């Protein structure tokens, strides 16, 4: 290898080594957190983490968007979550649910009403709660409370509803200062009632108190261990959250009216540009083609300007000679001229004949004779 190349390679390696040492000595790598927006599936399903968690534990999950008495009576699952506003409450449905619970069903009832009158006017639902000794009170805020000064961490209960329970039988109540969740056992089943279950939503379920409560209600085996052995699934009667699409994003970050008006104006201008005016279509009068003589006269003026009338004549004569040569041989130009006169059907005494003879003998061409001479050549070529 060339000595200069070796020196250059050594210098490059030395520089890279120094830069590597300096980077190792003075630079540090710090982890950087980057916010990743939730997927559309996660935004549409507020309980996505709960669903996947239960399925991972061996408890199948089935979700329907609304329910009624038929949904309950035909369900194979013995564990049901009902979002109260999405269930068709009737006295028959309330009575059937009470019997279903006594026969071993586990029901989680989420009171998600936003208006008090919607809940208070639902007599069938109130009768079901009264059957289990539960009195629900309304009037709190719609969210959940987070108070870091509490002596212990509290699950994320909805605050719109609070409960009073007749303490008779196997009953569990939860809540820091007010009862926010009630679980009543009846027969071989249980009824669990709460406000909106914020502790089950995907952003909150990873918090330790929420996880423990979700496990106790949805995943822990019953006293006989049947749930753990059979991997019995859950039926969820709940809705889906509305995700923000393109229009929602535009409404949130800008004025969609401006976009709509601009689009309409652009469409109108586009149609105005491409659609013709109403009425008869204007037509240009067709001009008849110029006579052949005028066209030859124009060509003659062009060749006269550049002194090339003879060149135009020689081209025609060459083509006529070539065509005659393919049919018969001529010993002299006179025989060729005679043959051309016969094809043209004129004699040498006529004007066309004299003009033809003059052209074949390459005599000087007069400009006024050029159109006529050209017409004679074309006639001969057509007749050969």
Would you mind describing this structure in some detail?
This protein has 384 residues and is α/β, with parallel strands linked by helices. It contains 16 helices and 9 strands. The strands form 2 sheets. Strands 1-9-2-3-8-7-6 form a 7-stranded mixed β-sheet. Strands 4-5 form a two-stranded antiparallel ribbon. α5 packs parallel to α7. The longest helix is centred in the N-terminal third of the chain and has 24 residues, at 3-26.
Features:
seven-stranded mixed β-sheet; 16 helices; alpha/beta; 384 residues; 9 strands
How many strand segments? Answer: 9
The percent range for strand residues is 5-15%
Q: Helix- and strand-based class?
A: alpha/beta
Count of helical regions: 16
- The geometry reads as elongated
Residue stretches low in confidence (pLDDT < 50, at least 5 long) are 223-231
Please outline the major beta sheet.
Answer: 7 strands, mixed
Secondary-structure element order, as H and E?
A: HHHEHEHEHHEEEEEHHEHHHHHHH
Query: Into how many domains do the coordinates divide?
Result: 2
Rg calc:
51 Å
Q: Termini distance?
A: 81 Å
**Averaged pLDDT:** 80
Major sheet strand order: 1-9-2-3-8-7-6
Query: Helical percent range?
Result: 40-55%
In short:
By secondary structure, the chain is of the alpha/beta class. It has 16 helices and 9 strands.
Break the fold down into its secondary structure elements and pairings.
Elements: H1 3-26, H2 40-44, H3 48-56, E1 61-64, H4 69-74, E2 79-83, H5 91-102, E3 106-110, H6 116-120, H7 123-131, E4 134-138, E5 161-165, E6 171-174, E7 181-186, E8 189-194, H8 208-219, H9 226-230, E9 234-237, H10 246-253, H11 256-274, H12 292-305, H13 309-325, H14 333-344, H15 351-360, H16 370-383
Parallel strand pairs: 1-9, 2-3, 2-9, 3-8
Antiparallel strand pairs: 4-5, 6-7, 7-8
Helix pairs in contact: 5-7, 12-16, 13-16, 14-15, 15-16
